[in-house]
Amino acid sequence: MKRCCWPSAVLPTYLLVVLLLALAASGEVIPRCGDRQLSQEEVEAQSGIVEASAAKRQALMQSTSKRTVLHAFQQQQRARAVNDYLDTYTLLTLDIPINYYVVHHEDGTGYVEEAMLEAQTAVMNDRFASPIDTGLRFHTNATVYINDTSLAMLCGHRRQFIAARYVILDGRDPAESLNVLVCRSRRFLGVAVFPWEAPEDDALQSINLHPGSLPGGYVADFNEGDTLVHEAGHYFGLFHVFEGTTCSRRRGDFIRDTAAQKYPTSGCPSPEESADTCPHRRGHDNIHNYMDYSTDACIDRFTRWQVVYMRYYTEYFRPRLSNAALVVEASSATCTDLGWQPADGVVGANGRGVCAESRVGSGDQCLTGDWFDAFFHCQSIGARMCTSDELMSMDNKGDIGRCRGLLRNRLVWTTNFCSRARRAVVRLRRRRPPKMECRPPERQAGTILCCADDTDTR
Ligand SMILES: *[C@@H]1O[C@H](CO)[C@@H](O)[C@H](O)[C@H]1NC(C)=O
Ligand SMILES: *[C@@H]1O[C@H](CO)[C@@H](O)[C@H](O)[C@H]1NC(C)=O
Questions:
Q1: Which GO terms describe its molecular function (predicted)?
Q2: Which of 28, 254, 301, 312 is the most buried (most CB within 10 A)?
Q3: Ligand 2 center to residue 42 CA distance, Å?
C-alpha cells in the first residue's frame, strides 16, 4: 500500500477533467489511487444516501465553475513568486480543530479507540512544530463513530463517496476544521484534496485516512502517524517531492529547497546519497521529507519553503480556517502597547477606539507589499489588518502619523474578500471619500496599514 494524495478517486468528474487537462498540458503522469468497482448490492445500499445528497451536490456543481478551479490552478503556478514570509515575519500560531469520523463495519472492522486518535493528534503537533515550526497546531474537537457497513465499504470510492461525505460530516463545516475520515480502503493509506480544488466549505475538503496507519496501527512501517502528516501537507497545498515524475527544472513540486526527484522512494535507502533519481541535478532524493513515500521511520521534515507555501496557501484558500484557528483573534496589543499615540489614532465610526497606522518600529518605515505582507506584518507586530468598514470610515483629515503622505490616494489592503481570488482594498483619496476596490492578493504595492483595538476608554 502507499500514501496517496491524488484526489482522482474522490473528485467529481468535472473537477477531474480540469485536473487532467492541466496535467496533460504539462505532460505529467498521474499516479493512480485505488478505485475499486462496487458490487450491485453495494450500489443499491447507497442509492438512498446518494439521493439525499443530490441537492447538495447540485449546489456544489453550481457554486464551483470550471473557471474558478482553473483560475486557482493558474494562481498556484504563479505562486512561485511567493515571498519568504517566514523569514520576514513572525507567523502566528493557528490551532486547528480536527474532527475524526471513524466509519467502521458493524462487525467492528475498522473500529479504533479514541486513544489512538488522540495519539494521532499528538503526532501532528509534534511534526508540525519541528525541525521547522510551521506555526500550525491541532486539537481534537470531535470524534464521531459511524457504525455502518455500507458506508464503510464506500471508503475512498469515487462518486458515491462524494455524496456520502455530506452525510458523514453532518453539518460540521470543513471551512473551520480539518475533517479526517478514518476508514479502510484496500488501495491507499490516505487521500487528500488540494485546497484549490473545491470551495473551502465543501465536504470534499476532508482527508481519508486508513486506521492501520494511526500510531500503533497494524500497517507495518507506516504506523507512526506520518500518513496524516503527509495528507495534511497536501491539504495545505503541497505536492509530492516527486511530483510530475520529472527532473525538469520548470515542473515538479515548485518548491525551491527540495531537490529534483523523479520517482517516489520506497523503504529508507541507505546511505541516503544512494537515492538519486535525478543524478544530473543537484542534491539527492528527498527521502526524509514528509511529502515522499518513504517509511514513517524514515521521514522527519518539511523544508523551509514547504512551510512558507503551507502558510501562504492556508491564508489564500482557507481564510475561514485561519480566522477560526487563530490563537490571537483580534489584536493582542492595544494602540498604546504599540506606541501608537492618540494623535496617531483613528477612531472608527463605531467609536470602538480602533487605531491604525503604517509606521513600523523605530524608523520611519512605511510599508507597501502584497496582501500576504499586510496579513503577516500586522500579525507579527501584535496588530491586525483593518476591515474595509474601518478604512472607509477613517478620518482621512486626522493625523495618521508620518506615513500620512503615503496614504494619500493609495490602496490599503483590508481583511475583506471580494471573491475567492481577490481581496478588497480601500483607496484613500484626496478630498473625496474613500472608495473600495478589488485586486489579486499577490499584487505588490498595496499600502500596509494595521489596526489595533484600544481597550482604553476615552
Ligand atoms: C454496530 O452495530 C451492530 C449491529 O447494528 C452492533 O451489533 C454493534 O455492537 C455495533 N458496534 C458498535 C461498536 O457500536
Ligand atoms: C466541534 O465539535 C462539535 C461537536 O460535535 C460540533 O458541533 C462543532 O461543529 C465542531 N466544530 C468545528 C469547528 O468543526
A1: metal ion binding; metallopeptidase activity
A2: 312
A3: 30
